[in-house]
């Protein structure tokens, strides 16, 4: 395997983890780091902290990770595309749909890999859930509900909870169900004195007919990261903070007497917590990005997919402002 020269823009709360994982992934060598704010977490090691994206590109890198505030994604990504550098930007893809589309166009036209860091797709619990759904373990899927709650992160200043956190749930839901969003309706609140929302409740429906619900906030003193997938044969509960997946079976025994076998509800059945290898999602994400750059089969989240997720989130915010359902 050839060794890819990697550059990292931003070593803040998320960037510091990218720095660590980039040094661990086979076939990738972290050769340059840039951050105009310096190195607050001391992750540079022997590398010099470069001042900006232009200095990073000048180091002759093959791929880059952009982990700066969302408002700076477009500028960095367009410069990297122009320089011929494959790029992974942290979610959300951009601050606006127009900016995201320009990024998609730039990487497509340059024939480069453009990816978005929707890390929840690589969570072992959700990957297990999707595999088991594809295998028919849940039967028909009826509903996907997520809860993502916690304290306010002082590091986030340029977007609200919808783009920062709800984008995770929108992306993972469409990915698990293998269906795009058809409609959304949302409500928001502003309780922390900022211009951006700090709580959003979204309901909607996928093109497949699956009903979705997302409860997301920065106003809870407890941390919760749950995805509940309810279907014909029971329900999967994925705890993405621990990587655990539990199956609650529908215990109703099918009746063999045809005249009385119409559906009458469900009952409690067996409960199974699955055991499987739990790899760090960020490392799996970086391996997928590396494989995509090398032209191999990969589950990397493309910029096109990231833009669709942003469109759903923007639709939810439009719904909250207008008080009506939004068709996507």
From TrEMBL:
Top-rank taxon, per record: Bacteria
Start and end residues of each GFO/IDH/MocA-like oxidoreductase domain: 127-236
Signal peptide extent: none
Domain Gfo/Idh/MocA-like oxidoreductase N-terminal: 5-118
InterPro entries in the cross-refs: Gfo/Idh/MocA-like_OxRdtase_N, Gfo/Idh/MocA_Oxidoreductases, GFO_IDH_MocA-like_dom, NAD(P)-bd_dom_sf
Gene Ontology molecular function, alphabetical: nucleotide binding
Keywords, ordered alphabetically: NAD
PANTHER family to which the protein is assigned, alphabetical: BILIVERDIN REDUCTASE A
Entry protein name: Gfo/Idh/MocA family oxidoreductase
